[in-house]
Amino acid sequence: MSIKSLASLLCAVCLCCVTSSYAWEPTKDIEVIVAYKQGSGTDTGARLLSSHADRYFKHKLIVKNLDGGDGSIGWESLIKAKPDGYTIGFINLPTFATLALKSPIRMSDVVPICNHVTESSIVVVRADSPYKTIKDLVDDAKVKRNLLASTNGFMASNHTASQLLAHSGGFDYIAVDCGGTADQLLALLNDEVQFTCVKIPDVAPLMNKAKPEVRILATFSEERLKDYPDVPTLSEHGYYDRWYGSSRGIVAPKGTPDEVIQYYVKTFGELMADPEVIEAHRKANLALDYKDNLNLEATMTASIFFCNDIIPMIYKKEELK
User: Fold this and answer.
1) Does 321 reside within a domain?
2) Residue range of the domain that includes 279
């Protein structure tokens, strides 16, 4: 075989390999399931991505909100969807992993595509709260033992944050299940509870007003947050000393072909690297944190270990049944 013929054959083989790596492309709009109501943090991020997606996907990403059941309604719909590439969705970690402890949902029911955002949890009170520091809150909680904290659902990420705080601070409290972060914050603003645990993007609009409506007492980060250098970490006061927060990942139903997954990994990577998209996330106070499918899979695995090791320590046995 001549050198010219061999070169032509090699080029053809390479072209074939490249083509087959991303052989699948959507030919119609794509449904994106969000397991929380419109206006929630996950929904905000999903809609931000979808608003910039057309020029990368050539079709629309249609956000479908299926809220209820602490996320289980939307996620059950996601895992039961046809694995043809036209239904994908967001999962929230560790909440999705926590559901595996009390529902038929399993991490293996979905295939990772990429991580979208990663956010540290924070402890928040009303701006006019008598609690000026995290120590004020914990000390009073130890005495009263009946402070109320709103949560986004039983064993959901924000509920678990409150449990971590209470367990490490040595106090009891009463959790008020509000079913979602938006209603969780509303309960705080209406003075129905004394504190709550959320993430920075959830309260940024309330913090950035001329007269802030909430006060951040502490963060679950290992170091002080860059944008809030005056807010201490919990570990500085001897409370929970590890990072805790939420990762929002994009996944597909189990059985989705690998060429479909690889298309999404590549295309979402390009979308999230777009300077315009990065700036839009910054303005929305969303901590954009793209990770490919392998790195998201590692995060999902770490969430399983967290739920198996930590969750039983901070929830009563009867609550896990």
Assistant:
1) no
2) 26-118+245-311
In a domain, 18, yes or no: no
Helix or strand or coil: residue 297? helix
User: Domain check: are 264 and 151 in the same one?
Assistant: no
pLDDT band for position 7 (50/70/90)?
A: very low
With b for 16 or more beta-carbon neighbours within 10 A and e for fewer, the 135-153 pattern comes to bebbebbeeeeebebbbbb
pLDDT digits (tens, 9 = 90+) for 18-76: 444 458 999 999 999 999 889 888 999 999 999 999 989 989 999 999 988 878 899 99
Tokens of 19: 């083509």
Structural domain count, the chain: 2
Q: Per the domain annotation, does 10 fall within a domain?
A: no
Q: Long-range contacts: 257-260, Cβ < 8 Å, 24+? A: 257/24, 257/83, 257/85, 259/20, 259/21, 259/22, 259/23, 259/24, 260/24, 260/84, 260/85
